[in-house]
Amino acid sequence: MTTPGTAVTAPPTIDVHAHVLLPGIEALVDGLPGLADARALDARRNGSAALRVNGPMIGERIPRLTDPAVRLAAMDAQGVDIQLVSPSPSHYHYWADEETAEKVYRLANEATAAHCSAAPDRLRGLGLVPLQHPAQAVRALDHALQQGLSGVEISSHAPGRELSDPDYEPLWARAEETGAIVFLHPFGCTLDERLDRWYLSNSVGQPTENAVALSHLIFSGVLDRHPDLRIIAAHGGGYLPTHIGRADHAWQARPDAGSGCAHLPSSYLRRLYFDSLVHDPGVLRELVRVAGADRVLLGSDFPFDMGTTDPLGALRAARLSDADFEAVRGGTAAALLRKD
After folding, report:
1. Where do the coiled-coil regions begin and end (predicted)?
2. Residues 6 or more apart from 152 whose CB is under 8 A from it?
């Protein structure tokens, strides 16, 4: 109960989906065997038209991606108090060998922590884990936490490995034990050239990858074995939350679909967290309905063009109840960040 005359402090506005560009990583991998093939694959997946747009788009945003002062000014203009900052997914470099992968994650963790140290009351950070080398994953997570970061960012898969791979069990166990945040943000879509026009590689590919990755976590029983994992899915979890009924039906109708997890797939949505970046007020309302406002967090994809420059405006457009609006605006994220 609030004492009469005592002011009630609202939770800060927290954006959990914002990126930092780390030029040192690209300098580190420049010219190494494997980089050219990785870039060629990226070019095939995105198509030439997308690549012509991407360069100038990123170039114009370099100050916001690298300069904490410019970032903070942009946050002020958006009405955002705190950002959870993760490396640009272009820094994953899951093609790298073990030695290079360790250098990448160490540099990413240290450079992200340094960027956030410019305003520790307003910037929280996430590091990287080399999913292509599961034996390094726990060390990478521990290194991120040692830098004062809140957790790590991962993609939807690594070459030849899904998130259901048993070799990731030590990572999930350590993340659960430490309370680390795991931010699931895809980079690239394995539908490849089918999506190489009209930027379908992103508009269709990213939500597809989110849905596939989350389905692997659900159907394989990862969330049964690690119920306290704190996973945030970017882009509202992609297609899965709004089409979860088909997964529920398969789980009930087919023994092969229901063999790996203990409960209806839809029930696991309330064990995951999702950002609000779905670009549609109706979809955001549905996400809040199926997952709960205590599982949805404000996200902008700052400062990329597939994000939103007005995350609060996008949230208001969903016309949520006051309580749900406040939870998504920052209440849920504030509780999440207090735990790390």
Report:
1. none
2. 126, 127, 128, 129, 140, 141, 144, 175, 180, 181, 182, 183
- Do the domain assignments include residue 180? yes
Structural domain for 170, as ranges? 14-339
Whether the model clears a pTM of 0.85, i.e. scores above it, the answer is yes
pLDDT digits (tens, 9 = 90+) for 77-125: 999 999 999 999 999 999 999 999 999 999 999 999 999 999 999 999 9
What's the CATH number where 21 sits? 3.20.20.140
How far apart are alpha carbons 305 and 188 in whole angstroms?
16
Tell me, what amino acid is at 317? A
Q: Beta strands 123-125 and 151-154: pairing type?
A: unpaired
Please give the Cα distance from 302 to 315 (Å, whole number): 15
Side chain identity, residue 26:
E
Tell me which residue has tokens 């430490």.
178
* Cα separation, 293 vs 237, whole angstroms: 14
